[in-house]
Amino acid sequence: MQLICHDCWNYSYFEADVETLRELKAGNGQLIVQDTKFEDFNYSESMLRDNLNDIVQYVIKQNGAALIWDPESESYQNNYISCAKCGSKKVTKPYSLWHSNRHQSLDKELLANQKEFTELRKEKKYADRLPVLWKEQ
Amino acid sequence: MQIDCLSCGKSNEFLLPLWVVTTFKFNEDDTLSILHVKPLESLEDKLTDHKSLREISCKECGSNEIDIVFNEYENQDDDEVSALEGL
Predict the structure, then answer these.
(1) ipTM
(2) How far is B74 from chain A (nearest CA, A)?
(3) Please, which residues have CB within 8 angstroms of residue A13's CB and are 6 or more apart in sequence?
(4) Could you tell me if residue A8 is inside a domain?
């Protein structure tokens, strides 16, 4: 497993934009568009495969650098590769620190931990006092 | 239609980069298999758009100085046109 989609958990099928090369041959009022070949070597095919491989290897190696923050969905999105099943751009390496579903904004994180923080402050306030026995009146 | 290289003037073969969407899958041995390739750009738009003309290069010399004539019979003299019509 090299990459995973955080929306549908697909780890096999993906899409990427790749640049390739086409050959134009003009003459006699016609335009022929075909793969470009240099001495029987199909350069168009080779360029497509190499560029795709480069993009995939870059995303796997860089991971965080290939992601951009999307303020609308409050998640990190992949700039280069998207999921071929659901179209989501939340594609990262598995077990990534950039797991988009686990992300919280600072405000939400502070609010969620407010109770715990209050408990901590209480502990600190009474930390220098010894327990006092209840006295009968 | 006619494409001329203004640098070498010899070649009638030219190269044009095009962006495509590639659908691929990871195989069990972590190699890639390409399932589908779909063009992202229209070839017609690229040929008619003057900004994209610089992207076309001559296969022979690599120069970007090219000229595209969409109708090479447009600028012919009246005599040539009538001669062709006569044929």
Answers:
(1) 0.74
(2) 12
(3) A83, A84, A85, B23, B24, B25, B35
(4) yes
